[in-house]
Amino acid sequence: MLPDYLPRLALLLLAARLPQACPVGCNCFKGELVCSSEDLVDVPRDLPENATEIIFVETPLAAIQPWAFANASRLSKVVFLDCGLRSLQAEAFAGLPALEDLEVTGSPLGGLPGEAFRNLSGLRKLTLNFNLLQVLPEELFQGLDALEALHLQGNRLQRLPAAIFQPLGALCLLNLAQNLLGQISERLLAPLAGLQTLKLSDNALATLPPRAFWGLGGLRELFLDGNALVELPEGLFSGLGALEQLWLQHNAIGHLPEAIFSPLANLTFLNLQGNRLRALPGGLFRQTPSLARLSLSGNRLENISGDAFANTPKLSVLTLSHNGLAGLPPGLFDRVPRLAKLYLAGNNLTALDGWLFRNLSELELLSLANNQLTALPTGIFDENFRLFHLGLQGNPWRCDCHLAYLLDWLREYSDHHFNLQTYCASPQYLAGQLLPALEAEQLVCPVSPGSHRARAFPEAAEDPSSIWDPEEEARAPAPCTYSSADGTVALACDREVCRWLRVRLSPRETLAGPGLTLNSTRDWVLESSCGSVRVTLSINAPGGGG
Ligand SMILES: *[C@@H]1O[C@H](CO)[C@@H](O)[C@H](O)[C@H]1NC(C)=O
Ligand SMILES: *[C@@H]1O[C@H](CO)[C@@H](O)[C@H](O)[C@H]1NC(C)=O
Ligand SMILES: *[C@@H]1O[C@H](CO)[C@@H](O)[C@H](O)[C@H]1NC(C)=O
Ligand SMILES: *[C@@H]1O[C@H](CO)[C@@H](O)[C@H](O)[C@H]1NC(C)=O
Ligand SMILES: *[C@@H]1O[C@H](CO)[C@@H](O)[C@H](O)[C@H]1NC(C)=O
Ligand SMILES: *[C@@H]1O[C@H](CO)[C@@H](O)[C@H](O)[C@H]1NC(C)=O
Ligand SMILES: *[C@@H]1O[C@H](CO)[C@@H](O)[C@H](O)[C@H]1NC(C)=O
Ligand SMILES: *[C@@H]1O[C@H](CO)[C@@H](O)[C@H](O)[C@H]1NC(C)=O
């Protein structure tokens, strides 16, 4: 008869085996091992053979011996984070036919043997970020036919062998950001026919060969920011019809060939911030009809031609801040009806055309801060029904009758959190006063003795030196402008004839007030210095609701 403790003994033996299934210094979760022990100076010899993923975190492994993982041949992912690896031996990852994802990040790895990744024909992602790699052998990636993503960010690479990427026909993503690359050869990237994302940010590239990107017909994102590029050779982007995002900010580009962006019919995002552009060639954006976000801030632009944005109908965010723009040509924004955010802060703008924003019915944010503006034309925001965020601070506002429209507009529409630091610069008795806090009555213009018109027509004051501007005249108040107390309705009449009637029913108003419904009638009493009038408005919808 068998002792009855035998089954219990078997159980105990099994239980005793279980801890051994997980190597000392590691934690095991199903097929995943996380090893993070300061005592682990070698890859454990007792790796469970069914392990599929192993991650070493901050373990002092100085080297990996050949065939170190061969007992766990099902591993598909091997990661070393901050492990102090100084070298990888030729057969370190031998015997891992299922390996798909290999990462060594944050190790003082200075170089790699040419055979480091040999036989890893199933590898799809290779990450070698933030090591100290200076040179790579030309044959390093041989046989990596399946590789889709290669990360070499944050190393010390100064140049790359011309044929190093030859085997990587399946690569979709190549990240070479934050290295010391001073140049790339014309042949380097040509084999990467499947590439979709190329990151060359924060290197030391001063020039690019004209054909650097030829053959990359599937490229969708190109990062060239943070280099030392002074100019871009003509034809650089030829054949990149699929490109959607182009990052060129923080270089030293002083000049762009007129046709440089013409091949980029699918470009939606372009960042040219922080370069040295003094001018934009006339047709620069003529053939980029998909452009939706464009930044030109932090350049040296002093003027922009009126048709610069004539062929970018989808533009929705435009940043022109921190240039030297002294003025903006009328009509500049007429053809960008989808513009929602417009940044013009930090320029030298002294005046704006009254119709500059007339086509921008979707404008939500407009920054005019830190310019030289003293006033804005009456009616300038009349078509900008969605505008809530208007930045005005840092301008030398002249708080007189010319600012009445702006004050009125701020009261009615502006977000209260904006313009808390918008002050009057003149007249002297209002200097330093918070503009949005003024009372309408404080905004007065001096009346010249004997001139009654000067009060009603500040713009057309009888000063022979004032320049006659027919457009300004047309917008100036008529001899009698009647308006309702809330500004919703205004009527302008000459002595006998009324010339225009404005009823402003912005979406905001219908949200806030009772609005006007179909088949309704409403009365307003309008006041002016000439007296008062009554306006009755009826809306009749024919049967069926129209
Ligand atoms: C290996 O597989 C066994 C059973 O199949 C399981 O109990 C064990 O937890 C696994 N070990 C690892 C490290 O995945
Ligand atoms: C593989 O397993 C065998 C038997 O358990 C062991 O002797 C050998 O050291 C292991 N090899 C490695 C590289 O861990
Ligand atoms: C590659 O595979 C061959 C054949 O299996 C083998 O002889 C060789 O040692 C392997 N090389 C490396 C670096 O793993
Ligand atoms: C541009 O984008 C459209 C729509 O996404 C796509 O059908 C077309 O193939 C793209 N053009 C190129 C050259 O990739
Ligand atoms: C503005 O551009 C024109 C040509 O488009 C140029 O002649 C002129 O010098 C520029 N003005 C300034 C102030 O840069
Ligand atoms: C703004 O204009 C003034 C006067 O014309 C000039 O001295 C200054 O350099 C300009 N600033 C910029 C940023 O262009
Ligand atoms: C812009 O506005 C002007 C005047 O209202 C109009 O003639 C023109 O067609 C508009 N352009 C676009 C693209 O909407
Ligand atoms: C407006 O009145 C007409 C006839 O007076 C009627 O047929 C129509 O349905 C009304 N519409 C609404 C929206 O009330």
Automatic annotation (TrEMBL):
InterPro entries: Cys-rich_flank_reg_C, Leu-rich_rpt, Leu-rich_rpt_typical-subtyp, LRR_dom_sf, LRRNT. Residues 1-21 form the signal peptide. The keyword Aminoacyl-tRNA synthetase does not apply. Residues 21-53 form the LRRNT domain. Keywords: Glycoprotein, Leucine-rich repeat, Repeat, Signal. It comes from the Eukaryota. Residues 395-446 form the LRRCT domain. This is Carboxypeptidase N subunit 2. It comes from Sarcophilus harrisii. The lineage of its organism: Eukaryota, Metazoa, Chordata, Craniata, Vertebrata.
